[in-house]
Design a protein that fits this description.
The protein is α/β, with parallel strands linked by helices. It is built from 15 helices and 20 strands. It folds into two domains: about 10-20 and about 130-245 and about 340-425, Polyamine Oxidase, Chain A, domain 2 (Alpha-Beta Complex); about 50-85 and about 255-335 and about 440-490, 3-Layer(bba) Sandwich (FAD/NAD(P)-binding domain). It has helices at about 10-20, 60-70, 110-120, 165-175, 175-185, 205-210, 215-225, 235-240, 260-265, 310-315, 325-335, 390-395, 400-410, 415-420, 475-490, and strands spanning about 50-55, 75, 90, 100, 105-110, 125, 135-140, 140-145, 250, 270, 275-285, 285-295, 295-300, 305, 340-345, 355-360, 365-370, 380-385, 420-425, 460. Bound molecules: flavin-adenine dinucleotide.
Length: about 500
Amino acid sequence: MNSTPRPFTTMPAILTVLRAKALFSPPADTTAAETIPSDTPIERRGKAKRVLIIGAGLSGLVAGFELMRAGHDVTILEGQMRPGGRVHTLRSPFSDGLTTEAGAGRIPANHRWTYKYIQQFGLKTIPFAPESLATLVSIQGQQVSLTPATRLSQHFDLSREEQGLGLAELAERYIVPAIRTIRSSSDITAPDWPPASLQKFDQYTLPEFLRGQGASRAATDLLLSGALTQKASALYVLRVLAATDLNRTEKIQGGNDLLPRAIADRLADRIIYGSRVVSFAEEESRVSVTFLQDGTYHSLEADYLICSLPFSVLRNLESMPHFSQLKRQAIREMPYMSMVKVALQTKTRYWEQQGLSGFVQADLAEIWSPAWDQASPRGILQLYQEGEVAEELDRMSPEQRLRFAASYIGKVFPGLSPDFEQSTSYSWQLDKFACGAAADLRPGDLYSWYPAVASAEGRIHFAGEHTSATPAFMQGAITSGYRAATEVNERS
Ligand SMILES: Cc1cc2nc3c(=O)[nH]c(=O)nc-3n(C[C@H](O)[C@H](O)[C@H](O)COP(=O)(O)OP(=O)(O)OC[C@H]3O[C@@H](n4cnc5c(N)ncnc54)[C@H](O)[C@@H]3O)c2cc1C
């Protein structure tokens, strides 16, 4: 690449920076009071309904599982040959059974809906990163190991007012007051969120908001290092931060896809794989769906439909009902983040010998060591890239992409070359079943078409992370699937 564009990073990573070595104390957790349903099935209302669900990602699976348990007649149409959608554990081409995550990686400690299903299906979680090894921040040409004692001003060009502040204090000064305001203003999971009083936070992106608070360039870069979207509305990101406590993050032992696979196993042949939906319609008292399977068109009818497709995919369907003006606008305009992960298998985890975890928050990307817990001397170093740089990676050949990732990672962890064995990469914007990594609402969207995103239209209900209060997280997919199931269950 000739020029290096300003990085855009993905939502969850600011949280990793903020939690780095427990430097960040989030404000009191109002989501702790959130009601999580018990494992008992929802009680069926009225007669059993025939329900079609498009998509066997986590939202479609949870909706299908709950409706099936309530006694409804469920069919899920899934375009791919596997369940899980954006929860996608890569098991190939690695040796020794090593795995990494192309999609969802970390589970925040307070994502209680996610943990509820993990436990219900008997799965185990382990820490996301090794806690005894150091995480690095690599920004503005400086590489710093973050500990509570790290004096940021020795490394970065902080303003006079910021001298002596650590990362936690920077967050406390520039981000936490806004999170407190958002939490105290209304229920952040309410369907009519956001209240008018929060519109002031929706006029800027998060970098603009931080600079408006007086943060220096260095403080802004530090707080946004890693994988945090930079184009999204500050309010949209701050709500996620308000609902997400990353003092501790975990992953599912054996791979995050074990959760969607376990739910899919229970749904068994109610899921029809390899069925790409091309259109759907509502006619009087029924819905109908047309899908392509093995090159042949098929149709199915039902009483109700749950559409869990990302709007980035939905807008490309051949036809759908004539929804309300705002819903159509949302489907047409909802922006999505671009993300690419490039994973490099190594003969050893040589960085661990230097006391390093292999996890890095950078101003171009994040680096992960996703196989740190796996029983092999081998390791994986994975470049995690969002935004314009991710789109540049799409335009490269596999060899160029590998060279880019190896050169980037090798600068942070010298010694990569002799240890390198093989690599693979995954682009979410090139995945035709996702067309992007996660919904990424821009300033102004929340107060224009956003209220129409999750609401049902006639016999058609909507699920998916983009319809939830925790977009870009498994929790958002799960809560939206549960909501859609209860909505359909309540229909007479
Ligand atoms: C790179 C990346 C990093 C992430 N990091 C995290 C993280 O650290 N922690 C976390 O909790 N979450 C994370 N997430 C978010 C999480 O993965 C998603 O929020 C969640 O998986 C979305 O589930 P969903 O059901 O809404 O959508 P999807 O998983 O996209 O499900 C939609 C389903 O519809 C299917 N489909 C698409 N088109 C058709 C069609 N025409 N016909 C039939 N089926 C179709 C797809 O194949 C898919 O199975 C990350 C996601 C990505 C991409």
